[in-house]
Amino acid sequence: MSQLRTRFAPSPTGYLHIGGLRTALYSYLYAKKNNGKFILRIEDTDQGRYVEGAVEIIYRTLHETGLLYDEGPDVGGDYGPYIQSQRANEYMYYAKKLVESGHAYYCFCSEERLESLPAVNGARRYDKHCLHLSKEEVDRRIKSGEKFVIRQNMPTEGSTTYHDAVYGDITIENSELEDQILIKSDGMPTYNFANVIDDHLMGINCVMRGIEYLSSTPKYNLLYDAFGWERPMYIHMPPIMKDAQHKLSKRNGDASYEDLVKKGFLKDAIINYIALLGWSPKDDSEKMSFDELLAKFDIAGINKSPSIFDPVKLAWLNSLYIKEMTPEAFAEYAAPWLENCYLKDFDKTLVCKLIQSRIETFGEIEDKLRFLVEFPPFDSSLYDNQKQKTNADTAREILPLVKEKFAQVEVWDNQHLYDALIALATEQGVKNGKVLWPARIALTGLAATPGGASEIAELLGKKETLRRLDECLSRL
Ligand code: GLU
Fold first, then answer.
1. What span, in angstroms and rounded, lies between the C-alpha atoms of 453 and 396?
2. β-pair type (5-8, 37-40)
3. Is 250 a catalytic residue?
4. Mean pLDDT value across residues 447-454
5. Residue 1: its pLDDT value, please?
6. Is 344 exposed, middle or buried (0-12, 13-18, 19+ CB in 10 A)?
7. What is the mean pLDDT of residues 117-124?
8. CA 324 / ligand 1 centre spacing (Å)
9. Strand partners, 151
10. Which of 30, 75, 119, 168 is spaced 20 to 30 Å from 37 by Cα?
C-alpha cells in the first residue's frame, strides 16, 4: 500500500465531543505509527448545523492535545481545500459523472409525493420513480428551473460485502439500500456523497470512524466501485456509552473536551483516558503518556464491544497526572482556580503543597479550601471518633493544652507544629490521635480535610490558629 493517510472529518457543530476526539486520536496514532499522514477535513455541508466559532474550537483542541495534522484548512497541503463548503463544484462534477454512467439519476419528486410513499418498517423508501425519466425530460425540467436532487441508483439484487478491521466482514443485501440523495436541492452534497469524493480525492486510504457508519459503508463502497476507485481500509470504532442503555452525547448534556478542561481535568489525562475508551494495550497498562500511547497503539487492541465513559476512572487517572506535576507547574495550572478562593492572605506555595496530592481535579480546589476563609459553627459530634476514642468531652480537655503548646511554638511550620502535638500526646500519656483528631476538627470544622492538624495550622498562621481554638473552646 502507498503511504498511509488517515483523516479526522468533524462537522463544526460547536464543540468537540469525546467520541470525535477519540476518532482523531486513533487516526493520529495509527497514521504516525505507520509513518503515515493525518489529515483534518471540516465537513460543513450541512449549513443548518453550522455554529460560529466551532471550527476554531476544533483547531485549538487538536493543537492543545498534540494531535497535529499534517494537512488541514489552517495548515495547508496538496489536496485542499480542506473545508467541504469550498469544494462544492467537485461534488456536482462527480455526481454528473455518476448520472452519465447510470449509477445516479435526477429526481424531481415533491415533498408531498415523498411523504405519500408507503412506509416499510417505519421508514419511507424512495421508489426509483424518477429513474426512468428520459434525458430530454430531465434536461427540460432542469432548464425550466425545477428543483431537483441527485440520487444514487442502488442495485436491487445481490449483496455488498466489505471487510472492517475491527468488526470483520460486513454484508448487506443491496435490496436494503435506499437510493440515497447525493446532491441536495440546494446544490450541496450530502455527507454520504461528500465523504467518499473527498476521501478519494484526498488520497485517504484508511477511514476510521464511529460504528454508526458501519452499515452505511456498503453504500459508499458502491460509489467507489461505480467510479472504479480503490476502496479504503475501514476501521470502525465501538460506541462510547454513558451507561448500559445510553450513548454518551453532548446533546444530552454529557461533557465535551472543553467542559472537562473547564472542570479541571488535564489534557494528558483526558487523552490517556479517551485512548482507553475502546482500545487496550497488550500489557493492560492504564496510565500512558502520549509517547507511550504512540508506542503501544495497535488496531488489534480496538474492542468490538461498547465502552462506558467512567468519570470516576477519569478522575483517578487525572489525580495521577496531578501528583506527578512539579510544584511550579501545579501552582501555575492551579492559579485560576485559586483566584476563586479569596486566598489573598495565604501562602500560595503552602496551599499548593497541601492540595496537590489531595485533589483529583482542579475543579475541587474551591470546595476543598473553603474552610480556610469560612469557619462557621459546627456540630460538636464531629469530635466523635470511636477509633481515636475522642468526643466533645475529650476535646474540651485537650484543646486548651493544644492551644498552650501552639502558643509556645516559635518556628511556625508543619514539622515543629507536628512535633508539638506529638509531644503533648506523650506528656499526657495518650495516643497521638487523641490530640490530632480534635485539633484538626477544631481548626477546620470538617470531618475530611486536605491535610492534618499541623499542616492546616501552618497554613492558617499562628494568630488564626489560636483564634479558631479559642472560638471552638468557647462553643464547647
Ligand atoms: N462529519 C462526520 C461526523 O462528524 C464524519 C464522519 C466520518 O468520519 O466520515 O460524524
1. 17
2. parallel
3. yes
4. 94
5. 60
6. exposed
7. 81
8. 36
9. 105, 181
10. 168
